[in-house]
Design a protein that fits this description.
144 residues, 3-stranded mixed sheet
C-alpha cells in the first residue's frame, strides 16, 4: 500500500487573500509565484471572470516541507466550531512557566496580526498548557 507524503490544507473563507496572508505571517510561509504568463497575482486575478476574481489564494512553506495552504471563497461566513484545526507548535519540549512565556509571546505577536485570543488551557496531568485562538475570520487554532 502506498503512503501519501504530500497534502494540502484547504480553508473555506470569505476573503481568501486576507486569510492566506495572515497564515503566511503566522507560519513564515510565502505566496507562491503567479501562474506562467502573469507578472503578478493581481494580473492573473484581473484575467478571470468577475465572479471568480478573488475566489482563491494559497501560501506555501518556503522549505517545501510543510503542506501548502489553500483558501477558497465560500458564500457563507463561519457559524460553528471547526472540525479540524491547526496546532501551531511553538512550545514543543517546554514546560511550566518557560512554556507559558513562549506561548504568551507568540500570542501577542499573532494578536497584533489580527488573531483573537480565546482562552488559556492550563496544564493538567496529561497535557501541557496551550492557548486557543481564532484567525482573522474566526477559525480556531491552538498555540501549543
Amino acid at each position: 500500500m502506498a503512503s501519501i507524503k504530500n497534502f494540502q490544507v484547504t480553508f473555506d473563507c470569505v476573503e481568501p487573500e486576507r486569510v492566506a496572508r495572515f497564515w503566511c505571517e503566522v507560519l513564515g510561509y510565502v505566496v507562491p509565484p503567479p501562474p506562467n504568463g502573469f507578472a503578478s497575482w493581481d494580473a492573473f486575478n484581473r484575467s478571470l471572470p468577475p465572479e471568480r476574481q478573488g475566489s482563491a489564494f494559497a501560501c506555501a512553506d518556503p522549505t517545501g516541507e510543510g503542506p501548502r495552504l489553500f483558501f477558497q471563497r465560500v458564500p457563507e461566513g463561519k457559524v460553528v466550531k471547526n472540525r479540524v484545526h491547526l496546532d501551531i507548535r511553538v512550545g514543543t519540549g517546554l514546560v511550566g512557566e518557560e512554556r507559558l512565556a513562549v506561548l504568551e509571546a507568540e500570542c501577542a505577536r499573532l494578536v497584533a496580526l489580527g488573531a483573537v485570543r480565546e482562552r488559556l488551557l492550563p496544564a493538567d496531568d496529561d497535557n501541557e498548557s496551550c492557548i486557543v485562538m481564532r484567525d482573522v475570520e474566526g477559525n480556531e487554532f491552538c498555540l501549543d
